[in-house]
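Batch manifest, entry 17 of 40.
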Amino acid sequence: MTTDVNSQTNTIVGPNTDLQGNLDVKGSVLVYGSVIGDIRSDGTVRSAKGSLIKGSIVAREAVIDGVLEGNLTIKGRATLGSSSKVIGEVRVNMLVIEEGAQFTGKCKMKTAKIEPVVHADKDKSTSDGHAGESASSSVDKDAG
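Output type: structure tokens
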């Protein structure tokens, strides 16, 4: 019988623990206390209500119920729980924001295909020698 190390919570930062430094974990992490530093996990990072993380999180999945001041980069799904407060940039494949969660920052969905509009006008405008003027006027025409 083989156990998937990524699904096991093998690291716990207790409620009375203040950890300063980066945390690199094989498997999952549960934070009750505070971590001042980055967390990297090939499993799930969970932060409990009342916890504090000042640093970036890179993981397969995340469930945030405490305070996170830093970027969140998740390969799968991230859940911002009802008691969470996240300040930073979130890069994720799937995002769940529960009622009551606070989020200040930017969100980038990895699966979203967004092409800049200026990109096509820029190529056309450089051929007539008026790059700056044409690009701004073509954007104005499209907007108005």
